[in-house]
């Protein structure tokens, strides 16, 4: 897809990987709608980048109505949706049983599944409906591209990651059938599985904790840069032959049990 002058939705675009993706897309001439819960940060980003290039919608990705209303607002302002990058998510750690043998509260598991997996599908389904109305574009006759954020934890979940790994494994499993569902419409679906990325949350941890996270990364021996995720997302949008694929971006990391 020729990315210039296209319209993108980025969930979780106020921080971390989502924010890096917003900047990467805007640098390529894309107009971006940020769907997030952080109104203050959303307003700051719009002020920084310009209301002609970016808009903000407060959205609960778990809510069908919230997402449907937000996408309608995006189409009303920018005219269409061509790209959707789902970065909204949470990553709580809690073991199935605690040290006293008590089971994890079910709401802990349910919450991460609702936000990470159901929220991703919720936004993707509504974005796809908007994309289906586009005229076919380019040599491949594309109408849109959806990129969902998985994780290396979806392959190699660690101790305390039962809920998180299940949510990201669900995104891995979602990838191909959704790509098959939407292929007749010219809409591609892919996923990115980041490893240990240098998001603000991780960079605020003590240096010894950061060093420990880097131990099992092969090369480059460092945390991933959020901008590297953003660059990969842009490439996956531009490359029409990447479809139904999950790409790891992890410096050859394979996670141990803990």
List descriptors.
7-stranded parallel β-sheet, Rossmann fold, 258 residues, alpha/beta
Explain this structure:
The chain is an alpha/beta fold and 258 residues long. The chain has one domain (7-248): NAD(P)-binding Rossmann-like Domain (Rossmann fold). Helix content is 43%, strand content 15%. It is built from eight helices and seven strands, in the order E-H-E-H-E-H-E-H-E-H-E-H-H-H-E. The protein has a seven-stranded parallel sheet with strand order 3-2-1-4-5-6-7, with helices on both faces. Helix 1 (16-27) packs across helix 8, helix 3 (64-78) packs parallel to helix 4 and helix 4 (106-131) runs parallel beside helix 5 (162-182). The mean pLDDT is 95.
User: Which second-level CATH architecture applies?
Assistant: 3-Layer(aba) Sandwich
Overall pLDDT score: 95
- Tally of alpha and pi helices: 8
Shape: globular
Name the helix and strand elements from N-terminus to C-terminus, one letter apiece.
EHEHEHEHEHEHHHE
How many beta-strand segments? Answer: 7
- Main beta-sheet strand count, sense and barrel state: 7 strands, parallel
The span between the termini is 40 Å
Q: Enumerate the spans where pLDDT stays under 50 for 5 or more consecutive residues.
A: none
Percent range for β-strand residues: 5-15%
CATH H-level superfamily title: NAD(P)-binding Rossmann-like Domain
Question: What helical percentage do the residues reach?
Answer: 40-55%
Radius of gyration: 18 Å
What do we call the CATH topology?
Rossmann fold
Domain unit count: 1
Supply the CATH class. Answer: Alpha Beta
Strand line-up across the major sheet: 3-2-1-4-5-6-7
Structural class: alpha/beta
């Amino acid at each position: 897809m020729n990315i210039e002058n296209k319209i993108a939705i980025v969930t979780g675009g106020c921080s971390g990987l989502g924010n890096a993706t917003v900047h990467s897309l805007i640098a390529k001439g894309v107009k971006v709608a940020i769907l997030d819960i952080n109104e203050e940060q959303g307003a700051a980003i719009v002020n920084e980048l310009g209301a002609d290039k970016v808009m903000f919608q407060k959205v609960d990705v778990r809510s069908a109505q919230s997402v449907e209303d937000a996408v309608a607002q995006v189409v009303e302002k920018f005219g269409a949706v061509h790209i959707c990058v789902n970065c909204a998510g949470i990553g709580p750690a809690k073991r199935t049983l605690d040290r006293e043998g008590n089971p994890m509260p079910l709401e802990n598991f349910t919450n991460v599944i609702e936000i990470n997996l159901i929220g991703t599908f919720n936004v993707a389904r509504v974005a796809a409906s908007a994309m289906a109305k586009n005229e076919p574009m380019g040599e491949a006759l594309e109408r849109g591209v959806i990129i969902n954020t998985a994780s290396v934890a979806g392959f190699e979940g660690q101790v305390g990651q039962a809920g998180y790994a299940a949510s990201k494994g669900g995104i891995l499993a979602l990838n191909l059938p959704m790509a098959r569902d939407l292929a007749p419409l010219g809409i591609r679906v892919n996923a990115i599985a980041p490893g240990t990325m240098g998001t603000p949350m991780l960079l605020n941890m003590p240096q010894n904790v950061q060093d420990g996270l880097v131990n099992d990364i092969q090369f480059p021996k460092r945390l991933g840069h959020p901008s590297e995720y953003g660059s990969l997302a842009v490439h996956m949008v531009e490359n029409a032959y990447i479809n139904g694929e999950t790409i790891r971006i992890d410096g050859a990391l394979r996670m141990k049990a803990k």
